[in-house]
Each structure stands twice: as C-alpha cells, then as structure tokens.
Design a protein that fits this description.
Helix content: 40-55%
CATH superfamily of the largest domain: Histidine kinase-like ATPase, C-terminal domain
Distance between the termini: 169 Å
Structural class: alpha+beta
CATH topology of the largest domain: Heat Shock Protein 90
Length: about 650
C-alpha cells in the first residue's frame, strides 16, 4: 500500500523530469535561435558586437570574425580593429569613435578594411550607446559588409557616367544629393570646393536661373514631373541649351522618396531647328516669289501628305480647313483638262515614273489659272510605289505673256512679209503687167477677127480663150500677193510642199529674170502632205529664195539656184535652197540665225530668225551649211506625222542674213 510519502516522492520525481524537459527544450530553442541568428548574419553579411570602453572588453559574433578575417579563438581588441582599417580611412574612423566616446552618442559611418591578402572591403558600422549595470558606457551594434553593394553602386555610377546626359538626384525636399561625374566635368566644377547648392549659381545662365528655381519649387511642392529649357555654362565658358527633366520616385503608398533628373544638351537640336525654320522661311518666300507650291500625296486613297502654303494660295483653298481630299482637288481642275490630267497621273502610277503636265484650274469665283505640275515617284524598300512628291507652278502670267509674244511675232512676221513685198513692188508689177499686156493684145486680136466682113469665129474664140487664161494668171498672182499681205491667226491645213515651192518660183520669176539667175527645181514625186500654215511656209520659202538671189546678184560668174525636196529619215520631209553666191560668213553658220545679225547693207536681221521660228513651230529644224565649191545651202525638215508645235513660242536668239 502506497503511503503519502511515496506519492510525494513520485510527484517530485515527475516534476523534476518535467522541469528538466522544459529546460532542455528551452536550451534547444535558444540554440535554434542562435543558429538562426548566425545563419541570418552570415547570409546578410552582418555581424554583431558589444564594446565596453571602460574595460576594453569586446564581444564579436561569428560573422564579425569572418568579416574582419580573424580566427574565432582570437580575443578581439581595439588594436586588432585598427589594424584592419584602411590607412586612408583611419583618421576619419578614429575621429568618429572619439566623438562617440566623448559624447556618449550613437555612431554610424562607413570605411574600408584592408585585408591581409591586399583585398579591400567596405563596411558600415552602426552602434547604439547604452549604460551598463555599473553606470559605465557600453556600445552595442552591427558590422555590415557592404562591399557587394558598393561594387554594384560603382557599376551603376560607371553606367551613369557613360550615359550622354548630365544625371542628378535630389531628396524629397528638392535638395540635390547626387551629381554625376559627367555633369561635374562638363561644368568644370569640383564638389569639394563648391557646394551642391551653389551649382545653379555657378553653371546656369543668369537670365534662366530664376525661372528654373520657380519651376523646380512648383514641381517639388505639387509632386509633378519637372521640365525646363535652360542655358548651362560649359567648362570653357560657353553657354549651351539643355533640356532639364526630373521625375519623383515614390514608395508604394505614393510618398515621394526622392527625385531623379537628367539634363540633355539640345544646343545642336536648337540650332538645327532654327536652321530648319530659316530654311522653311526661305523656301516659303522662294515659292511665293516663283509662284511654286510643293506637295506630296500617297497612292492609297490619294490623300495629301503635304501641301505648302503657296500651293493653297494657287489652288484657292483655305489652309485653316485642313488638306482638301482628292475629289476636292480634282474639282479644281478645269473640266476640259481633267482627262489630260488624269491620263498623266494614271500613266505615272502604272509606270512608276515621273510626270509633267500643264493644265488649267478653275477657282470658285470663275478665275482660270494655268498650272504646270511635276511629280516624282517614291518607292519603298520592296520597290512598291507609295507616294508622289512634286511641285505645282502657277504659269498664268507666263501663258499670258506667251500669248502677247505670239501676237507680236505674228505682227512682226506680217510686217516682214509686207516689207519684202514692198521691196518686190517693181518685180511684182512687171509680173502682173505681162499677163495684162498679153490679155490686152489678145482682146484686140479678138476684136479684129470679129470686125472682119466675115468674122472668123474660130480665131476670135481662141483669142478670147487666151484673154481668159491671162486674166486667170493675173488673178492667181494677185491672190498670192494678197495672201502674203493677209494678217490673221495661224491656220493649219494639209500642205503640199512642192506646190508651195512652185508658187514662190512663179511669184519671184521677175526677180530671178532680173538678175539672170538660173532656177533648177529638183522636186521629188509623191511626197506626203503635212499639217502646217501655208502662208508661213510661203514666207519661209520667199525669204530663203530672196536671200539666195541677193547673195548672187553681184557675182560675175554663173548664178544658179537649186531648190530640192525629198524624203528624210524619221518620216520627215527635207527642203534645201542652194546658191552659188558669196557663201556664209566664216565660222558664223549658226550666228546668222541670231536676231538682228545681218550681212546685208540694208538688212534688218530678222528674216532668218523668223524663218527658223516658223519651222520650229511646225516641229522641224532649219540650218545653214556651205554649198561646195561655192555658195550656201539652207535646209529645213518638216514632220509628216505627229503633232506640230502650234503654240510654240518663237525665240529671238537666232537671226537673218
């Protein structure tokens, strides 16, 4: 039977076992905590320490030993710590410690450790000052190996310094706390002698500093991104334009922790923009003076990509309303010219080629303008046509001037014909008198045959027929003279060149006879007709024949004039007038076509100029050459197919003989 004494003994034994178990459990928990702490310190490269300056006693954790690279059997001392401090940092570290001892204050500083193998570590020492049981001073703190962070910081700093921008950071209140080395080198500033607060005063242009400060204050106060254009002085004293920007860095709650900024040199961009504005201004002025507008439109949808101010003025659109669509632009084209304009565009698109077309545009008020448009295709990398660029020139004034010039040329050609006909008055009178005299003789003969007692009707009829023939001859001569004197617009018709030559030979027969000139026509048969102005071609032939007669009339030798017509290459006719006269002036075969150049004493120097202009307006060519062994030849070609240049402008850079 169990006694009370036994029960108490048993309870004491159980309680002892439980207490022992609890103690063991606590010891194990404590060991686990210490193990966790040691592992955490190892992973974070952070060691702990305790230091009683009064006794010199120092406690280091396992990680602290590893950081300082001392064996854990070593007893830590201040001397051992000093041995590891980098010589360049020893003075500042000693000063910090002495101040903490003197003031009994916390301390927090970074310095380098120089290890036995020559490697360098960066450490941060943080400690709190406490009072011990005896009232003495004790420091409890941590030693953090920040070498990896420092190396990462150096790499970031290197990256920052290689960025082609001037980078800086600021605290939440806007005060600068970092400036990149590139920024300092650009401004030629040493932060050891110049505080960050003075950087603006030293580097920013005086005219820009106040607006920079105001914008920065507002940005910091409102927490909004900052941007300003300022002039910054370079190390050599030159001010250059910079774009300064900064953005706030916020935590997850939205609180601003600091600012990150950079300043980019935009001086070259500013100058380029100013040069571009100046160039655009010059271009706009040049377009205004030349009445030429530039444009660009894409193939897809034919939408306008660019229309210059002068283009809007030419076409009468309001630039404030935006670019007009394709249909609007098409409606500006004169109804009679739309097909021609559309054909030129379609051909250029199909062939991916340049195009040039002249057409009229009709403005809302009824004003008609003449426009010359030149377009150039733009292809992408695949060779596909994507757009056209080009220009449109208002040539209305030129067209009016050309029309006035054509009228003046027509008047001058008429005067030239009239002048030539005036010079031929005596010859023409003789040419007319011959058939009139013959008609008078035949009429008298007819009267005599009828007045006989037995009228001879057969002879009278033959005499009357000769009168009619002579009268027709007179009418033909007078008709040709009237045609040459006629003044009017150029009229194109099918012309037989041989017929024109024969008419001029007949008309100038008296001049040929007067100067004993032998005329030998060599006219090819079955020549095709051509579209031309008959009167103008008669004027050319008359001028060339008269020039040849003038060149031979004072010669003692045989005077021979050969007029030849024949087929030429490229479906053209060629006519040549060759004489045996004095020939062309030496080295002046082309100069004789210049206006007002003449070899005649009483010449005007316009005959050959006008003749060449007439031939060129028909799509042909007129030139002069020596007629060996003596004399000169004037030749011209005329196309038998294709369009002639009916509206061709006569140029006055060529002359007459």
């Amino acid at each position: 039977m169990t006694t009370k004494h036994d029960e108490d003994k048993l309870l004491r034994s159980v309680a002892l076992q439980n207490a022992n178990s609890i103690l063991i459990a606590r010891q194990r928990a404590e060991q686990r905590r210490e193990a966790y702490l040691e592992e955490a310190q190892r992973l974070s490269h952070t060691g702990s320490f305790g230091w009683r300056p009064s006794t010199g006693e120092i406690f280091w954790s396992e990680e602290t030993f590893r950081i300082f690279q001392y064996d854990q059997t070593t007893i830590p001392t201040v001397e051992l710590v000093v041995q590891r401090v980098h010589p360049e940092d020893a003075a500042s570290a000693k000063q910090t410690i002495e101040r903490a001892l003197q003031d009994g204050s916390n301390f927090d500083f970074e310095h380098r450790l120089l290890m036995p193998d020559g490697s360098v570590k960066y450490v941060r020492i943080v400690a709190h000052a406490l009072g011990d049981e005896s009232g003495g001073l004790e420091f409890v703190g941590a030693v953090m190996d920040v070498t990896a962070a420092k190396e990462a910081e150096d790499r970031i700093r290197l990256i920052i310094n290689t960025v082609p921008a001037l980078i800086w950071t600021a605290r939440a209140d806007g005060r600068l706390d970092f400036i990149s080395q590139r920024w300092l080198e650009y401004a030629g500033i040493d932060t050891e002698t110049v505080g960050s607060g003075e950087l603006g005063e030293r580097s920013v242009h005086p005219d820009d500093i106040e607006q920079l400060r105001n914008k920065w204050r507002v940005a910091v106060a409102e927490g909004n991104p900052f941007e300003a254009e300022i002039r910054v002085m370079r190390f050599d004293g030159e001010y250059r334009w910079f774009l300064s920007r900064a953005c706030p860095f916020r935590d997850r709650a939205g609180h601003i922790l600091g600012w990150y900024g950079n300043d980019i040199d935009i001086e070259d961009r500013k100058r380029a923009a100013e040069a571009l504005r100046h160039s655009e201004s010059n271009l706009a002025e040049a377009q205004r003076l030349t009445h030429t507008g530039s444009w660009a439109w894409r193939i897809a949808g034919r939408d306008a990509l660019h229309l210059s101010e002068e283009w809007y003025r030419i076409y009468g659109f309001d630039p404030e309303k935006g670019a007009p669509g394709f249909e609007e632009r098409l409606q500006r084209t004169h109804p009679e010219d739309r097909a021609k304009w559309q054909e030129a565009i379609d051909r250029a698109i199909a062939e991916k080629s340049d195009y040039e077309v002249e057409f009229r545009i009709l403005l809302p008020g009824g004003t008609v303008k003449h426009v010359r448009t030149v377009g150039h295709p733009v292809l992408n990398a695949s060779g596909d046509l994507v757009q056209f660029v080009g220009s449109s020139t208002d040539i209305t004034e030129r067209k009016h001037a050309e029309e006035s010039l054509r009228q003046a040329q027509t008047d001058l050609a008429h005067v030239s014909r009239a002048t030539t006909m005036g010079e031929l008055t005596a010859s023409l009178a003789h040419e007319v008198n011959q058939p009139i005299a013959a008609a008078l003789t035949d009429a008298n003969t007819c009267m005599r045959w009828l007045a006989r007692d037995q009228p001879d009707l057969k002879e009278a009829r033959e005499a009357a027929s000769r009168v009619v023939k002579d009268a027709k001859r007179v009418a033909e001569i007078v008709g040709r003279i009237r045609l040459l004197f006629k003044k009017g617009a150029s009229q194109r018709e099918l012309v037989d060149v041989n017929e024109v030559i024969r008419e001029m030979i007949v008309l100038l027969h008296s001049e040929v006879t007067r100067y004993s000139v032998s005329v030998r026509p060599e006219l090819a048969e079955d020549l095709p007709q051509f579209m031309g102005d008959r009167v103008q071609l008669q004027q050319v032939m008359m001028n060339l024949i008269m020039n040849s007669i003038d060149a031979m009339k004072d010669m003692d030798r045989k005077r021979e004039l050969v007029i030849k017509s024949q087929r030429a290459e490229n479906e053209e006719l060629m006519v040549s007038v060759s004489d045996t006269g004095v020939g062309l002036p030496p080295q002046q075969a082309e100069q004789v076509f210049n206006a007002f150049f003449t070899t005649k004493v009483d010449g005007t120097g316009m005959g050959l100029r006008i003749s060449r202009s007439i031939i060129e307006s028909h799509g042909g060519r007129l030139w002069a050459a020596d007629n060996l062994p003596r004399g000169a030849s004037f030749c011209f070609t005329l196309p038998t197919k294709g369009e002639t240049h009916e509206g061709a402008r006569v140029t006055w850079g060529d002359p007459t003989r």
